[in-house]
């Protein structure tokens, strides 16, 4: 059982650098999720940990052993692939036991482990079938079973649920979470779905264009995004981000105004470095907008999505910006209605000219 | 007149489909189906290429003539006292085979047969006789050819395919080189190889002499009954190996990379990856290749026709060559047809057996 340490890990294909120096430490037993848009390098990073891609530069430790050049089989990792990667000509039983068979584990012991894994994953009745006779969810279960029996130090999941339908994805997500509690193993999980990241992770690593944007617990990322990218990526619906001008700045407040927003003063921590006249970004989560006739944001209803417990409203502001608000319950709204919204200034986020978050007060 | 007009109605005409397959159907019927039926019919007659006499139905006589075999057990000659006679070297004396097969009323079923091969059984000598010695030679040579070419060519093609399936710089050059003989006409290839196999100044002899520092004595590869068939086998394997390599390659490329990666993480070495991932993944390709090579090997003709004409001493006689020779050079269409029918039955039997043995279980 082991943790993981990545020190300035880099990967280049020819002159193109795709992973640009990742530092990360993972405690033993932690569930870490790499999340980011397609092509951000999250799968490459995972494959480097697995040993399927060479590490161009930097150091990778599993436990306290540097494994940069160690063969995948000797790294003590097990991987679950997006495509499941089940051997089509073998039964589920043989698929699950393949790694053990290669290790020349005696048959009775092997049998015990396979049946134990099948029990954990509730797939005992599937053992004699071929992968082609299984549904997507069942295949993924088998792929996970194949990882479990090897009793690895680190589990690696490469977008394991993206080939499943929404309902199944939800239930498999819960099972993986349960499995993590049951096994207590270190798990690294790659996904582009921020909901998966939020629900599963102890620690989320947000990647964009080969660079780590922020590392933190799901709520850290949600409540204090480090920059515009994280703010826009984490949370559903997305945070509203509106360009504004800083009209005034004191030591612990910034007053912003713009075509979308009348002058509003936001409390911030000292040392924010924002000067009057800077073009900055104002951010507010849809859930933090409330109906308030005296509020500063007024717009026409463009789209109403009734979810029963809440209503998601898209508004067209006079400035041309769009705003999404999540209102509680089933608000009665019609297209074209004018809605006025307000917010609590201390919930507002500001991002400076570089896109980095301004510390709140 | 409607705008969807004449074009559409022509396409929908019930005869349109038939017209479209007509060119292919006519060609296949003329050059494949009709000759097949004719050959089948002729094989039961005494049809000659040009003959003043009317054709007669002869039943199975052509087949009896071709595949008629018999055995004869010869006891050593004894003198009047019942003691075996030995010659000056101490060898046993046997009556001549001729005395049984020529006008011997006690052995009417052996009439006209010739000695094919034989062996000693205690003091007795067992002789296997054939009614048509040349046909028997052609049959055994063909079977030897198939038995060697099918496994060796498919294995070699697989080996080449595995080698060129790697991502290496310049690998396409090798693909081209291996495939080149396939696109050259077999007649041209055969002519070239006649020079290579030449007994005095052939490339092969020169090469072997050079490599053995002059110790190797030149061999007339095609003029020697012991080497002629093997020379044709070697050249035939070389000529078509590239074609089958490409088919193997297409099979190899249908195996998902993730299966190899999963196997690698689970600890499979190169051989185990081949044994458990590649080979099972090539099952269908293997069936196709074995069947195709077998059929092609049975159809051996051009190499023999160009290189040896069946000689020396019938050592390279094969079935198709015999069928052509009989049908056209000896003007015995019925005999040639009978050989074709026998070939058809053999190939059909072997193909069905192969399909049964390699069926999906």
UniProtKB/TrEMBL annotation, chain A:
Matching PROSITE patterns? ABC_TRANSPORTER_1, ABC_TRANSPORTER_2
Which topology term describes how it sits in the membrane? Peripheral membrane protein
Among InterPro entries, the record links this protein to: AAA+_ATPase (IPR003593), ABC_transporter-like_ATP-bd (IPR003439), ABC_transporter-like_CS (IPR017871), ABC_transpr_MalK-like (IPR015855), ABC_transpr_MalK/UgpC-like (IPR047641), Mo/tungstate-bd_C_term_dom (IPR008995), NA-bd_OB-fold (IPR012340), P-loop_NTPase (IPR027417)
According to the UniProt record, one GO cellular component term is: maltose transport complex
Primary residence: membrane
Its annotated compartments are: Cell inner membrane
Q: Which UniProt keywords apply?
A: ATP-binding, Nucleotide-binding, Sugar transport, Transport
Start and end of every ABC transporter domain?
4-234
Any Pfam family from its record, for instance, is ABC_tran
For this chain, the family text in UniProt reads: Belongs to the ABC transporter superfamily.
Query: PANTHER family annotated for this entry?
Result: MALTODEXTRIN IMPORT ATP-BINDING PROTEIN MSMX, MALTOSE_MALTODEXTRIN IMPORT ATP-BINDING PROTEIN MALK
- Stated name of the protein: Multiple sugar transport system ATP-binding protein
Q: Which organism is it from?
A: Pelagibacterium luteolum
TrEMBL record, chain B:
What are the entry keywords? Cell membrane, Membrane, Transmembrane, Transmembrane helix, Transport
GO cellular component terms, alphabetically, are:
plasma membrane
ABC transmembrane type-1 domain mapped to chain residues: 139-354
The Gene Ontology biological process annotation of the record reads: transmembrane transport
* Highest taxon, organism lineage: Bacteria
| Compartments in which it is found | Cell membrane
What family does this belong to?
A: Belongs to the binding-protein-dependent transport system permease family.
Q: Does the keyword Transport apply?
A: yes
Calcium keyword on record: no
| Organism the protein comes from | Pelagibacterium luteolum
Sorted alphabetically, which Pfam families does this protein's record hold? BPD_transp_1
Ranges annotated as spanning the membrane? 21-44, 143-164, 176-196, 228-249, 285-304, 333-352
Its record classes its membrane topology as:
Multi-pass membrane protein
Say where the protein is mainly found: membrane
In terms of InterPro entries, this protein maps to:
ABC_transporter_permease, MetI-like, MetI-like_sf
Q: Which PANTHER family match?
A: ABC TRANSPORTER PERMEASE PROTEIN, INNER MEMBRANE ABC TRANSPORTER PERMEASE PROTEIN YCJO
Protein name according to UniProt:
Carbohydrate ABC transporter membrane protein 1, CUT1 family
């Amino acid at each position: 059982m082991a943790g993981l340490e990545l020190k300035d890990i880099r990967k280049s294909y020819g002159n193109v650098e795709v992973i640009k120096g990742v530092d990360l430490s993972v405690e033993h037993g932690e569930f870490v999720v790499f999340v980011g848009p397609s092509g951000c390098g999250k799968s490459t990073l995972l494959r480097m940990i697995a040993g399927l891609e060479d590490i161009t530069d930097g150091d990778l430790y599993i436990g306290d052993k540097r494994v940069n050049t160690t063969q995948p089989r000797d790294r003590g990792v097990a991987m679950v692939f997006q495509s499941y990667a089940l051997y089509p000509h073998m039964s589920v039983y043989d698929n699950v036991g393949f790694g053990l068979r290669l290790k020349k584990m005696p048959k009775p012991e092997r049998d015990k482990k396979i049946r134990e894994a099948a029990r954990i994953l509730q797939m005992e009745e599937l053992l004699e079938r071929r992968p082609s006779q299984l549904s997507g969810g069942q295949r993924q279960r088998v792929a996970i079973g194949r990882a479990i029996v090897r009793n690895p130090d680190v589990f690696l999941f490469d977008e394991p649920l993206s080939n499943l339908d929404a309902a199944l994805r939800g239930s498999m997500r819960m099972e993986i979470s349960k499995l993590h509690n049951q096994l207590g193993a270190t798990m690294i999980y790659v996904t582009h779905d921020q909901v998966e990241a939020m629900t599963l992770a102890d620690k989320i690593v947000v990647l964009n264009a080969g660079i780590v944007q922020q590392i933190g617990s799901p709520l850290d990322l949600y409540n204090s995004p480090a920059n515009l990218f994280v703010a826009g990526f984490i949370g559903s619906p997305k945070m509203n981000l509106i360009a504004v001008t800083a009209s005034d700045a004191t030591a612990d407040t910034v007053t912003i105004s713009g075509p979308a927003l009348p002058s509003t003063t936001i409390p911030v921590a000292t040392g924010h470095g924002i000067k009057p006249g800077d073009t900055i970004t104002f951010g507010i989560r849809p859930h933090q907008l409330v109906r308030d006739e005296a509020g500063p944001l007024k717009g026409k209803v463009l789209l109403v999505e009734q979810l029963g417990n809440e209503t998601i409203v898209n508004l067209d502001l006079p400035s041309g910006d769009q705003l999404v608000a999540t209102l509680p319950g089933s608000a009665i709204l019609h297209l074209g209605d004018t809605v006025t919204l307000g917010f609590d200034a201390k919930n507002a986020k500001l991002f400076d000219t570089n896109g980095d978050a301004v510390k709140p007060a | 007149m409607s705008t969807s007009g004449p074009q559409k109605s022509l396409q929908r005409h019930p005869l349109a489909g038939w017209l479209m397959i007509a060119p292919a159907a006519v060609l296949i019927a003329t050059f494949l189906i009709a000759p097949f039926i004719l050959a089948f019919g002729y094989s039961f007659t005494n049809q000659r290429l040009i003959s003043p006499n009317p054709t007669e139905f002869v039943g199975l006589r052509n087949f009896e003539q071709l595949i008629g075999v018999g055995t004869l057990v010869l006891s050593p000659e004894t003198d009047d006292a019942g003691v075996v006679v030995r010659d000056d070297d101490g060898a046993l004396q046997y009556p001549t085979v001729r005395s049984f097969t020529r006008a011997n009323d006690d052995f009417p079923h052996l009439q006209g047969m010739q000695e094919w091969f034989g062996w000693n059984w205690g003091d007795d000598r067992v002789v296997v006789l054939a009614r048509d010695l040349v046909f028997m030679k052609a049959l055994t040579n063909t079977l030897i050819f198939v038995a060697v070419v099918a496994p060796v060519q498919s294995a070699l093609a697989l080996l080449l395919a595995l080698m060129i399936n790697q991502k290496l710089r310049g690998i396409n050059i090798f693909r081209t080189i291996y495939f080149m003989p396939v696109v050259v006409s077999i007649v041209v290839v055969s002519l070239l190889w006649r020079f290579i196999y030449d007994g005095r100044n052939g490339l092969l002899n020169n090469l072997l002499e050079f490599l053995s520092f002059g110790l190797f004595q030149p061999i007339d590869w095609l003029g020697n009954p012991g080497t002629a068939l093997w020379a044709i086998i070697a050249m035939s394997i070389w000529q078509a190996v590239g074609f089958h390599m490409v088919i193997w390659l297409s099979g190899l490329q249908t195996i998902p990379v993730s299966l190899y990666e999963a196997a690698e993480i689970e600890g499979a070495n190169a051989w185990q990856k081949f044994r458990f991932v590649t080979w099972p993944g090539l099952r269908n390709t293997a069936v196709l290749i074995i069947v195709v090579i077998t059929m092609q090997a049975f159809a051996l003709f051009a190499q023999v026709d160009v290189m040896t004409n069946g000689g020396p001493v019938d050592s390279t006689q094969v079935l198709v060559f015999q069928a052509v020779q009989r049908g056209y050079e000896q003007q015995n269409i019925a005999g040639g047809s009978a050989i074709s029918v026998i070939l058809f039955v053999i190939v059909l039997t072997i193909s069905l057996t192969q399909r049964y043995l390699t069926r999906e279980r």
